[in-house]
Structure formats: structure tokens, C-alpha cells
Amino acid sequence: MSFVAIIAIIVSLLISIYLGKRWQFWFNFELTGYYQIAYWIVVFVAGLSFILSIIFSGISTYWLPLISNVIFGLIICAIFVTLIFDAIRRLSKGHFTANLLNKILYIACVVGLFIFGNEMAINPKIVEYQVKIDKPANVDHLRLVQLTDIHISELTTHKSIQLMIDKVNQLNADFIVITGDTLDRRLKPFTELGFDKQFQQLKTRYGTYIVFGNHEYLGTTQANNSEQDIIKAFQQANMKVLKDDIVYLDDVGITLIGRDDLSSSRYDVKRASLADLIMFADTTTPIILLDHQPKDLDEPANLGIDLMISGHTHRGQVFPINLVVAAMYKNSYGMFQNPEQHFTSIVSSGYGLWGPPIRLMTRSEIVVIDITFNNQQKLTNSPQ
After folding, report:
1. Does the model's pTM come out above 0.90?
2. Which of 201, 195, 119 is nearest to 159 (CA)?
3. H or E stretch covering 117
4. Separation of alpha carbons 61 and 48, rounded Å
5. Cα–Cα distance between 367 and 384 in angstroms, integer?
6. Phi and psi at residue 44, in whole multiples of 5°?
7. Which of 57, 110, 209, 237 has an alpha carbon within 20 to 30 A of 5's alpha carbon?
8. Per DSSP, what are the bridge partners of residue 290?
């Protein structure tokens, strides 16, 4: 068992104890004997619901994760509401009591917060960035649309993917770039439930490019779920897969680099170093890097990358994890620029979800990047 898993279990147990005790107060549960034992079993199962669903993932791929994710989402909402109720009680010096009205209010707040969080998860916003690359290209302007962290699984609905497709197709993209974790852990739902056919509806002028994330690798030891199976399925969905690949797009005069995911080494796949890849790129052209995890921004900046596009972080998905993620990455969300090295990093919170079907203080999104180039440089350097 990994260190992270142990920490997750400990935190879940502490949350369960806190909620169990506070529910006894706010709902006047006076339980004894077997009723007390049954109560705490229910509380601990609810608090550990998400972890238990992962442990028993082989039992069910739909109902078990669906129920456990909803329960875990409600538990998260209950934590916030309980903390607020306890704070109000303390500030009111005990006048805020566990009466019938406040019991109803408590339940309404938990359910309301869950509905709000779910709405932030399933109703994506369009986030727009303007980037100036200080190199000449064969066009004055390019529009990139970024999708990331869609996390397609048995729980994904065709409605949510069609909403994504329709929104993207309204944006008139020159390119679509999908920066990893398109799958949650299995290829089967993508192909057998027809999501691959939906992806074929994506419309661009110059194509759709996709890279692997860490979740693409999670099931690669299973039958019919190898790297090659995933690559073939993506290609059949009209997406061009970049795994440590460099593409020079002559029509527009830019270089696109797609890196394999950082986690690939755990699966006996050697990821090429960016320094080795850049040797095969024309650094006089604008270079756009697709890399799922925004782990190191200094290396691409030092090597002449102009724009790096990433996902992975989900912006934490649920407060206060966004604060933890912000401390882990130089750019955990949004746009970071280094003007001295003419480098820009853009990190999206992603379209999909992992775990509970809610977002709190984050939101699902589709990213639009409008890029302009310094074509005056080309005119200045051209022969008179």
C-alpha cells in the first residue's frame, strides 16, 4: 500500500469520526448497544466509500462507483456544512441549537451544496487566453482549443460528451489539442459505448492532436487495453496521437511537440527527454509543447519552447485541495508567463472529473487560446 493511500485512509477515518460525533449532536442521535455499532459502521463505510470503491473496483464498473462517488460527494458537502454550523454555534455562544428547523436547514444545505457542486462539474465554461509568440509563422493568427482530463468511464454520459463536442465546434478551432487523461483507466467504455464515434464529430481546420496522461496508463496491463490498443482507438476517432513526437506543420509554420506522460516510466516505457526532442525541432519556428503534467516549467523555458499546454491538476477540483495543488506546481492553473524567455504555460482545470461528481471553488472548462505571431520579424529579415 502506498504512502498516499495510507494518508487517504487516515484522513477518511478522521473525517468519519468528526462527522459521526457531530451528527449525533445535530440530529440528537441517542443510540446504545447494537444501534450504536450499526450507526458507526454506516458512518465509516460512508466516509471510506470512495476508497472502498477503488479497492472493490473489480466487482462493478457502474453501480458501485456511481453510488460511492455520490456518497463521497455528499460527505464532502457535509464536512463544509458541519464546520459552518459548528462555527455559527460557537459564535452564537450556544444559541444556535439542534432544533427541528436547523436539522432541516442542515440537510437542505448539504443537498444544495452538492447540487451546486455538480452544476459546476457538468456545466463547463469557456476560458479564453491571448498569447503573443515572438517568432514568425506562416499565418498571423491561430486558434487552439484545449480539452483535457475528460476521464471517460462507464459513468460518462453521451450527453456530457455531446455538449463538449457542440461547444468546441462552435469555436472555429484551427487545432484541437487534448492534453491527457481522456480515459479514466479503461479503453472499453470509449469504444464500446460509442464515445469514439462522438469524437469523430470534432471539427478543425488542421486536425486534432492528443497526448497520453497518467490515467491512460492505469489499465495498460489488462487485455485489450495496451498502449497500442489505445493509440489505435484514438486514431480511429480521427485524433493524431503524439508520444514523444515532433510535427512541423508546414501550412501554418509552427512546430508541435507531444510528450509521453511523466508516469510512463512506471510501466516500463522510457519517456524521451525534452532536450533530446528539441534537437529535432526547428527552434526558429514557434514551438508548442503538449505535456499532460505541468511538472517542470524551467526546462521548456530554457530550451526555447514558446507555449506549453497542460492539464492534470483539475485545479484541485474541490476546496481546499486547490490550495495544496497550487503549492505543488509553479503553475497549477491558468496562464503563467516568463517574458524574459518568451515562455507561456497554460494549465486547464479540465472538462471531466475524478471521483466525486462535484467541483467546489473550481469549474469544468474548455480552453480557447488565440495565438498571434511576430511576423514583422519575417518581413525585417526577408531580402529587399
Report:
1. yes
2. 195
3. helix 100-122
4. 18
5. 40
6. -70, -40
7. 110
8. 258, 309
Among 146, 185, 224, smallest CA distance to 65 is for 185
Amino acid, single-letter form, for residue 335: M
Alpha helices per DSSP H over the chain: 3-26, 33-47, 49-55, 63-91, 100-122, 158-169, 188-192, 195-199, 214-217, 227-236, 274-278, 298-302, 321-328, 375-381
The DSSP H or E segment spanning 370 is strand 365-373
Q: Do you know the residue count of the chain?
A: 384
Q: Where are the alpha helices (DSSP H) in 123-175?
A: 158-169
Give residue 50's pLDDT. 87
3 state DSSP class of 360? strand
What's the distance, Cα to Cα, between the start and end of the chain in Å? Answer: 68
Match 510535427 to its residue by C-alpha cell.
247
User: Average pLDDT by consecutive 10-residue portion of the chain (384 residues)?
Assistant: 80 95 93 93 94 82 92 96 96 92 97 98 97 95 98 96 98 97 95 97 97 94 92 97 95 96 92 94 94 96 96 95 94 96 96 94 97 78 50
The CA distance from 296 to 328, in Å, is 11
CA diameter of the chain:
94
The count of other CB atoms within 10 Å of the CB of residue 244 is: 19
At 382, the amino acid letter reads S
Is residue 204 within 8 Å of residue 161, measured between CB atoms?
no
pLDDT of residue 377: 64
The dihedrals phi and psi of 62, each to the nearest 5 degrees, come to -130, -70
Distance CA 366, CA 369 (A): 10
d(C-alpha 347, C-alpha 355), whole Å: 20
- Buried/exposed 331-344: b ≥16 CB within 10 Å, e otherwise: bbbebbbeeebbbb
**Spatial distance between the Cα atoms of 349 and 368, rounded to a whole number of angstroms:** 13
